[in-house]
Amino acid sequence: MDHTLFVLVDLLGTFAFAVSGAVAARERRLDLFGVYVAAYVTACGGGIARDLCLGALPPVGISDWRYMACSALAATMTIWASPWVERLKHPVNFFDSLGLGFYAVVGAHKALAHGANVEAAIVLGTVTAVGGGVLRDVLLNRVPAILAKEIYALAALAAAIVQVVAEVNGRSIAVTPWFAAGVCFVIRFLAMRYSWGLPVVGAPRAGTPPIHAKRADDDP
């Protein structure tokens, strides 16, 4: 039952991330093959990185046909339903937010199942969640969301912490994945809705001229 539940959560995350990858690829006007590649890389990149770290070889994103099929289905549906998807204000961020929580939960759970300690499970849960998005953005020549001012990795980190703490303390395994994923989605949604973000390192203070600005006492 537990295995089936987490496979379901994993496939939901795969679908959501594949949609975000396909939408981003369409925005970059990639060809049909490029859309499917971007969808697969976004959907399975983080899980492959996690499995390599855990020594769970071959990675499930490569060895289990369901993940590639789920990614292809999501990309096909995105192409077919593009007029409806494009009505969303920020479709890439929306589907990213859905997949983020699911993958953080699955990554943390799998790490614990393979004997990782609490700290490693939290880190690998976060890596699973953000890895595919980073690969997508690098592939499409975008600034990775994890490096931008917006709250992204912190939402995944919160979900991984909730999942790990719940499992270590013996909470109901049937409830915690949905709760932890929900925490991630709410944090991410509120951050986008109210433009929350971390402070930018080196940002000039209000009223301070930029470094390259010419001072009044400089030579003409």
Question: Which structural traits does this protein have?
Answer:
mainly alpha, 220 residues, disordered C terminus, globular
Describe this protein's structure.
The protein has 220 residues and is mostly helical. The longest helix is centred in the first third of the chain and has 26 residues, at 2-27. Helix content is 69%, strand content 0%. Helix 6 packs antiparallel against helix 9 and helix 7 (118-139) runs antiparallel to helix 8. It has one domain.
Can you lay out the helices and strands and say which pair or pack?
Layout: H1 2-27, H2 32-54, H3 60-63, H4 65-80, H5 82-85, H6 91-113, H7 118-139, H8 153-168, H9 176-193
Q: What is the helix/strand order? A: HHHHHHHHH
Give the terminus-to-terminus CA distance. Answer: 76 Å
**SS class:** mainly alpha
What is the β-strand count? 0
The poorly predicted ranges are 211-220
Query: How many DSSP H or I helices?
Result: 9
Overall tally of structural domains: 1
User: Rough shape?
Assistant: globular
Helical content class: 55-70%
**Oligomeric state:** single chain
Estimate the strand proportion.
Answer: under 5%
Largest sheet composition: none
Based on CA atoms alone, the radius of gyration comes out at 19 Å
* Average residue-wise pLDDT: 85
What is the compact description of this entry?
The chain has 220 residues and is an all-alpha fold.
